[in-house]
């Protein structure tokens, strides 16, 4: 069991002023029934951006042992706080595009005979409202069977959005229990058959270890994919240029820190789009 830093709110001190809300970039805090509430610790990064704006000194950060995220356990706590908090939690999951967790929450509420509004039920083509940048809104493209390509055209094998590692939620529904491709940004442009050869049936994240400045967040996201989204395998697809090796190093560092152990595969592509090497990587 790993330790996590999580925001703690002292309800006795909280006066419900709401000054903490704009300083929570994850949208995990809301004012409900006159008190600040952490509606989902799933998205609380524990950095405490909200602390300095609390005039009542009601917010602090606690570090404690935390099991991998369990939606049912969260719902047991949310349910006790009443209807407004329940609806706020469901809205939070929907806005973040966490459809797998939203479905779990709805299932829990049905067992409790709680009437869930129709707006929270997921349709076949899943688009979810998202506050903030439209590029971070989770979308899953569900298509029936294999599509026949028109002459001279190759169908896309992409079934998700977003794909950039900075933008994705590591706990998005399209990562849950999936085989994941972590590809260098240039890889898809170099390989003519990237979609059919590597992407088909897999989930995707892309990154550039040279141009993306904050790669520490990449390590944390990959750890979450493994331990919490419980991905099956991770394949790192990089170019032959030296700087691209940084992407492999990021993946290796993340997997060394995970509780679960999964297979790691490395594929190296030449700048002409040919496969140079393909191997399973040992973390020992």
Description:
By secondary structure, this protein is an alpha/beta fold. The chain folds into two domains: 126 residues, Alpha-Beta Plaits; 124 residues, Dna Topoisomerase Vi A Subunit, Chain: A, domain 2. Helix content is 25%, strand content 21%. It has a five-stranded mixed beta sheet. A three-stranded antiparallel beta sheet has the order 5-6-7, with no helix packed on it. Strands 1-4 form a two-stranded antiparallel sheet. The radius of gyration is 21 Å and the shape is globular. The chain starts with a strand and ends with a strand. The relative contact order is 0.09. About 4% of the residues have low confidence.
Q: For the largest beta sheet, what order do the strands appear in spatially?
A: 9-8-10-11-12
| Proportion of residues in helical segments | 25-40%
Beta strand %: 15-25%
Tally of alpha and pi helices: 7
Please describe the topology of this protein.
Blueprint: E1 2-9, E2 29-32, E3 35-38, E4 59-66, H1 71-80, H2 83-95, H3 99-111, E5 126-127, E6 139-140, E7 160-161, E8 179-184, H4 187-190, H5 194-199, E9 203-207, H6 216-227, E10 233-239, H7 245-257, E11 264-269, E12 275-280
Parallel strand pairs: 8-9, 8-10, 10-11
Antiparallel strand pairs: 1-4, 2-3, 5-6, 6-7, 11-12
């Amino acid at each position: 069991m790993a330790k996590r830093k999580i925001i703690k709110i002292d309800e006795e001190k909280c006066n419900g002023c709401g000054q903490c809300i704009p300083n929570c970039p994850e949208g995990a805090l809301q004012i409900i029934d006159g008190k600040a509430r952490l509606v989902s610790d799933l998205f609380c990064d524990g950095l405490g951006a909200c602390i300095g704006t609390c005039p009542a000194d009601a917010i602090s950060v606690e570090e404690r042992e935390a099991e991998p995220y369990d939606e049912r356990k969260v719902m047991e706590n949310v349910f006790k706080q009443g209807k407004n908090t329940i609806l706020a939690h469901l809205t939070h999951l929907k806005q973040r595009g966490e459809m797998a967790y939203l479905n779990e929450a709805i299932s829990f509420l049905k067992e409790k005979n709680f009437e869930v509004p129709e707006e929270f039920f997921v349709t076949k083509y899943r688009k979810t409202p998202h506050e903030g940048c439209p590029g971070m809104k989770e979308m899953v493209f569900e298509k029936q069977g294999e599509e026949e390509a028109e002459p001279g055209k190759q169908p896309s094998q992409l079934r998700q959005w977003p794909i950039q590692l900075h933008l994705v939620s590591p706990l998005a529904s399209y990562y849950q229990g999936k085989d994941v491709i972590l590809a260098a940004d240039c890889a898809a442009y170099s390989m003519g058959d990237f979609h059919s050869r590597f992407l088909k049936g897999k989930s995707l994240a892309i990154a550039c270890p040279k141009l993306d400045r904050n790669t520490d967040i990449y390590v944390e996201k990959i750890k979450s994919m493994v331990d919490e989204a419980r991905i099956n395998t991770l394949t790192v697809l990089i170019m032959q240029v030296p700087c691209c090796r940084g992407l492999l190093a990021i993946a290796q560092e993340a997997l060394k820190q995970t509780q679960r152990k999964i297979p790691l595969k490395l594929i190296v592509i030449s700048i002409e789009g040919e496969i140079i090497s393909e191997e399973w990587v040992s973390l020992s």
